[in-house]
Amino acid sequence: MKPVPYPTIQRFPLYLEVIKQLQIAGIKTISATDIAQNLGFTNIQVRKDIGYTGIIGKPKIGYNIKELEKVITSFLGWQNTNDAILIGVGALGSALLGYKGFEDYGLNIISGFDVNKKIVGKKIHGKTIMHIDDLKSQVKRLKVSIGILTVNQSSAQQVTDLMVKAGIRGIWNFSSENLKVPNDIVVQRENLSASLALLSVKLSHKFKTKQ
Amino acid sequence: MKPVPYPTIQRFPLYLEVIKQLQIAGIKTISATDIAQNLGFTNIQVRKDIGYTGIIGKPKIGYNIKELEKVITSFLGWQNTNDAILIGVGALGSALLGYKGFEDYGLNIISGFDVNKKIVGKKIHGKTIMHIDDLKSQVKRLKVSIGILTVNQSSAQQVTDLMVKAGIRGIWNFSSENLKVPNDIVVQRENLSASLALLSVKLSHKFKTKQ
DNA sequence: TTATGTGAACTAATTCACAGCG
DNA sequence: CGCTGTGAATTAGTTCACATAA
Questions:
Q1: Whether this model's pTM surpasses 0.70
Q2: CA of A54, closest CA in chain B: separation in Å?
């Protein structure tokens, strides 16, 4: 099987959103053109992306929408809910704890961790906040493999080491620290400044439109 | 002048962060290798990226750190603070209002807008929340050109139309709606699900490491 | 005709290779 | 040497072109 390009993987969640919207509208089949128009992409790109999932569409008709949703969801590993914990319950962390959208991505944040005694033991957006000293025991107990890191840069590496020791295998890093982890741990950096940079540069007319 | 690749633009903020850290440590010159090691990139990539700014480095020594900061900052248009407003003061919107990191990106969120009467008139993280009916007059008065959109998908297009009418030129879109705007308006979509998708797929072993 | 599916052509981005300088 | 600067080679991703099917 050919390797799936990273940009394709990143577009899949957008396709899922369109699929969900159209499903709500009662639509049963969907073409690459439908998705493309909805998102402002070309139909060729969408078609090629969908091709990587191996789904077979019907010429003139398109894809069975239910089936397409299934193959993309399962490609992303979102068919079952993945439990996650979040470390660093500041402004951003609290927001993510309350963010409903993650359900669509198969992500379920079970609880938050922090060192701040004012919030430990409380609930934020319905999620219990525990002390970071309990991280290891809770990760073991809850069998969580994903950690969302929303501490500030200065404690990011230290907290990461704790997460790794606790058995976390994937880290979604919202801090700006370049985390050092063992080879078998996956880190995904979320870089808000990257898209702000694009917006700024586009606004300054240095570029044509697109992307 | 050659066009600067988008990925390069997206890496620039990361370089700036390393530069700032090393400046605090009192360092006066910095090489592409220094930055690369700090971020886990190759020195060739960093060197090529820096090359796009036109800065002249000294072989064996590297770049003057102050000067490098300046050329990257100015390339991104971050040398002066850009004022922005934020629309949709829910969980995510509130978090962004309180997010200190934006200062480094030359972004200053002046105020928030919402329709919720419970918060209109109040201050959140020191920023006044106004009613969306006042959007147009405030945008004119404050001469803001950037709008941060953190409403939910169902109202995203409607609010966008209001922003465009009010004179906003660049929209940072945190909703999952594909916004329709006139040609001269720049929209940058922030897609959290994209990096979660990468994390998920990497975790499911479908891929080797990297990126 | 309208859609899929796919090899081929093209474009973008990364990485290599090496000249030149302190 | 260690580092910059840059054209060339390579790899990755997108877009084209067209065969095929309902």
A1: yes
A2: 15
